[in-house]
Design goal:
heterodimer; A: 113 residues; six-stranded mixed β-sheet; five-stranded antiparallel β-sheet; 0% helix; globular; B: four-stranded antiparallel β-sheet
Chain lengths: 113, 112
């Protein structure tokens, strides 16, 4: 059961461009939506997270847009740089007694010069 | 970096043998998780713990068991390893529910 659907599976963006990764969820009890970044050979690390009381959160070049009615959220990377090349995972958790994170399937992002 | 150590980092084992992976934390965090990562599937939760001796199943728990006898240690056991359990296994910890989870470096397990 895939409760968090992520797209695209892979993405190639030119340096300086905007990278956009989308996620959709099914469980309306989810109330915490983080994005994780993973470099090869490393564990995932938290990049940015949002809760459903706001529609957007920005940290530097990274922005989460959240649409509660559509049950969708997305990650925007502005001015994409080669160092942003990594795999990105969206995730969600929430609901009574639900402390565990459910992850999307990941997006491999490549920034080309 | 959060104090999480996974051991071993790499292991090759034969089908049918038991295997135990260890996750050790020095953060005194309440929650500990075991995930497996496979191409096309992302990170899937195997088991998690919300306290000493308190554990629960995730979405892919068949063939796996866990134990947590101390706050700092969370063990994952493959009771009889199969080739389908070849994967990269990640341990994660968090202090409070629905806040940042910190991941270990992973254990690459190959079952031949």
């Amino acid at each position: 059961q895939q409760q968090v659907k992520q797209s695209p599976q892979s993405l190639i963006v030119q340096k300086g461009g905007i990278s956009i990764i989308n996620c959709a969820y099914e469980n309306t009890a989810f109330d915490y939506f983080p994005w994780y970044q993973q470099f090869p050979g490393k564990g995932p690390a938290l990049l940015i997270a949002i809760r459903p009381d706001v529609s957007e959160k920005k940290e530097g070049r990274f922005t989460i847009s959240f649409n509660k009615s559509a049950k969708q959220f997305s990650l925007h990377i502005m001015d994409s740089q080669p160092g942003d090349s990594a795999t990105y995972f969206c995730a969600a958790s929430g609901g009574f007694g639900n402390e565990k994170l459910t992850f999307g399937t990941g997006t491999r992002l490549t920034i080309i010069p | 970096d959060a104090g999480i150590t996974q051991s071993p980092r790499h292991k090759v084992t034969e089908t049918g043998t038991p295997v135990t992976l260890r996750c050790h934390q020095t953060e005194n965090h309440r929650y500990m998780y075991w995930y497996r990562q496979d191409p096309g599937h992302g990170l899937r939760l195997i088991h998690y713990s919300y306290g000493v001796k308190d554990t629960d199943k995730g979405e892919v728990s068949d063939g796996y068991s866990v134990s947590r006898s101390k706050t700092e240690d969370f063990l994952l056991t493959l009771e009889s390893a199969t080739s389908s359990q070849t994967s990269v296994y990640f341990c994660a910890i968090s202090g409070v529910a629905r806040t940042e989870a910190f991941f270990g470096q992973g254990t690459r397990l190959t079952v031949v």
